[in-house]
Amino acid sequence: MKETIVVAIGGNSLIVDPKRVTVPAQYEAAYETALHMVPLLEAGHNMAIVHGNGPQVGFILRRAEIAKPFLHMVPLDSCVADTQGALGYSIQTALRNALMRAGAARPVCTVVTEVLVDRADPSFLVPSKPIGSFMESGEAEQHRQEDGWAVVEDSGRGWRRVVPSPLPVEILELEVIRSLVKSGIVTIAAGGGGIPVIREHDGTYVGIEAVIDKDLAAGLLAQQLGADRFIISTGVQRVALNFGKPNQIDLDSMTISEARRYIAEGQFARGSMLPKIEAIVEFVSATGKPGLITDPPNLSRALSGETGTHIVP
Question: For 231-281, how does the pLDDT look when each residue is reduced to its tens digit (9 = 90+)?
Fold first, then answer.
């Protein structure tokens, strides 16, 4: 049966070798991921894709820091917009080529997507999302004074900038995305969690210095599209309890009540698996539709129930 599927892929999945992070290398990684999506599209499913952008935003910020004596700094909302265009271009080209070579050509496009956040979100009071490069204390203090950055010392490894990570409230281009997906166009949207914007008192919108969690934005998109399934593609075939320990248990499925219990027990690492589980739980709770977590090579098998971790009401 044809379904509407939202798939979230991580920005780190586009970097296979940390020592080889060129644009061509990221395209190769995007193409490899695209190959694993082809069977889902050959089956006739409609699809929206949300990608991460953490490493790529870091690259832009680092270039800006190096060029600071000569060029302006780049606001964080513009960094997200830049990566939506560049990564969207890479992913859509990779997917278009993979589909064409499989004899299953379909149109693919990228939508530069703004996501509304609440100006009263508590994250603005306590910025906590690390971005960019590690710095010495002197450089961090200079950025704090001259650029207004919030900076923190990170586990003895150096200082880093931290920014708010507010919850996504509304996807402004939703109707455009909905129209594209319903018409069978594979649509890349809300990249990097979306460009964070707030609504001013006069009804206008303005971008802000913040980062929206990509998985939470993807879950919101899946809800608002009325998707039949929400898939998070990550670095593991299944979600595990006691991850990395001798008593590790891989999970074939869990209910949302079990997932909430595991969250309360601290089973999932913050900044890693935790936001993925939270996003899936929110989607399943709101819609009653299933969620799925697996790695790219097993997308097709997981969708047919052979592997992956299935989250159900």
Answer: 999 989 999 999 989 999 999 999 999 999 999 999 998 878 999 999 999
Which residues on neighbouring strands pair with residue 162, listed in sequence order? 130, 150
Domains and CATH numbers, the chain: 4-119+167-312 (3.40.1160.10), 129-163 (no CATH)
Question: How many Cβ atoms from other residues are within 10 Å of residue 137's Cβ?
Answer: 11
| Given the residues 10, 53, 54, 129, the one annotated as active site | 129
Question: What's the one-letter identity of residue 305?
Answer: G
Q: Which of 10, 11, 193, 219 is catalytic?
A: 11
Instruction: Assign 6 to helix, strand or coil.
Output: strand
Q: Which two tokens stand for residue 88?
A: 């969207």
Report whether 208 contacts 196 (CB < 8 A). yes
- pTM, two decimals, is 0.93
Which of the residues in the chain have pLDDT under 50? none
